[in-house]
Amino acid sequence: MQRTIGEAAKAAGVSVSRLRAIANGALGVSLSRWRLWQALQTALQHLAEGDSVAIAAFAAGFSDQAHLTRSMKVTLGLTPGAVLAGVGLREGS
């Protein structure tokens, strides 16, 4: 289960703004951007294992498969089907 940034800050005993600053310094990108990359990585792993886009989206914490597809298109410039077709995991996607 994914925590919200507020929950993570509370668990760490720091404010949300302090957690964002710490993460930005440690990761070199914003906490929100890092979380998106982690979610996309999780979704891509599920897709590579043969799960549907809907299952991959749910497992990665996206609200639905359209949310995953939009996020992947904006971030990577490709849809889930195009990514999988490009690496030869699914034909005709």
UniProtKB/TrEMBL annotation:
Gene3D superfamilies in alphabetical order: Homeodomain-like
Q: Which PROSITE patterns match?
A: HTH_ARAC_FAMILY_2
Residues in HTH araC/xylS-type domain copies: 1-86
Lineage top rank: taxon: Bacteria
Q: Which key words tag this protein in UniProt? A: DNA-binding, Transcription, Transcription regulation
Q: Which SUPFAM superfamilies match?
A: Homeodomain-like (SSF46689)
Protein name in the entry: HTH araC/xylS-type domain-containing protein
Q: Give the source species.
A: Algimonas porphyrae
